[in-house]
Design a protein that fits this description.
- The structure holds 2 protein chains of 2 kinds.
- Chain A is mostly beta strands.
- Chain A contains no helices and 11 strands.
- Chain A has strands at about 5, 10-15, 20-25, 30-35, 45-50, 55, 65-70, 75-80, 90-95, 105, 110-115.
- In chain A, strand 4 and strand 5 (about 45-50) form a beta hairpin.
- The N and C termini of chain A lie far apart (about 35 Å).
- The relative contact order of chain A is 0.33.
- Chain B has strands at about 5, 10-15, 20, 25, 30-40, 45-50, 60, 65-70, 75-80, 90-95, 105, 110-115.
- In chain B, the strands form 3 sheets. In chain B, strands 2, 5, 6, 10, 11 and 12 form a 6-stranded mixed β-sheet that branches. Chain B has a 4-stranded antiparallel β-sheet with strand order 3-9-8-7, with no helix packed on it.
- In chain B, a hairpin with a 6-residue loop joins strand 5 (about 30-40) and strand 6 (about 45-50).
- The termini of chain B are far apart.
- In chain B, about 30% of the residues are buried.
- Classes of the chains: A mainly beta, B mainly beta.
């Protein structure tokens, strides 16, 4: 049984650099979500995909952020020109729509980003 | 707009004590889901329970129990006979069942420390 996996688990970068994170959802899950969590706060929604389609984006997702899910399987989240305020844990979750359990999102271990 | 309040920032108990984590939510949706997740020090959010707003029956799962009171907009979580392994941050979350938004809205979490 494989859960949601995320890579890398930790990323340290310098301000102004671009970073990319990957998320592999639970097999056969058609929905994939990205959240951001800062210290002492709950996760905040960024965006979600159903299959390849990006259906919802938060206002938190500035122009420097882009997410893709090209084949409806794994997803990438890219942050361009990173800022110190981007330092956070980036969480990915997946769920399976159109089943009795469709609304439960299962989370991965997260990628912790530190921008120096 | 949805809002979830977890007024208890930190709780510390001694092993075998019972502990209740409070969650109060605000929503304009007539139907909605409520969730509890556990985040141990490793960082991964672990799903504990989902409750539909039309089902006010309380639920017990082993040492865990949940008290849903629609009249007071509360969804409290009790751990009976706490154990050191219960030490974690616990998050309450809410999302509508209608309206198309799939995002979970989280509270800020309650950090539970169970001392031996």
């Amino acid at each position: 049984d494989t859960g949601v996996s995320q890579n890398p688990r930790h990323k340290i970068t310098k301000r102004g650099q671009n970073v990319t994170f990957r998320c592999d959802p639970i097999s056969e899950h058609n929905r994939l979500y990205w959240y951001r969590q800062t210290l002492g706060q709950g996760p905040e929604f960024l965006t979600y995909f159903q299959n390849e389609a990006q259906l919802e984006k938060s206002r938190l997702l500035s122009d420097r952020f882009s997410a893709e899910r090209p084949k409806g399987s794994f997803s990438t989240l890219e942050i361009q020109r990173t800022e110190q305020g981007d330092s956070a844990m980036y969480l990915c979750a997946s769920s399976l729509a159109r089943t009795r359990d469709r609304d439960t999102q299962y989370f991965g271990p997260g990628t912790r980003l530190t921008v120096l | 707009a949805q809002k979830v309040t977890q007024a208890q920032t930190e709780i510390s108990v001694v092993e075998k004590e019972d502990v209740t984590l409070d969650c109060v939510y605000e929503t304009r949706d007539t139907t909605y889901y409520l969730f509890w997740y556990k985040q141990p020090p490793s960082g991964e959010l672990v799903f504990l329970i989902r409750r539909n707003s039309f089902d006010e029956q309380n639920e017990i799962s082993g040492r865990y129990s949940w008290n849903f009171q629609k009249s007071t907009s509360s969804f409290n979580f009790t751990i009976t006979a706490s154990q050191v392994v219960d030490s974690a941050v616990y998050f309450c979350a809410n999302r509508p069942t209608q309206g198309g938004s799939e995002k979970l809205v989280f509270g800020k979490g309650t950090k539970l420390t169970v001392n031996p």
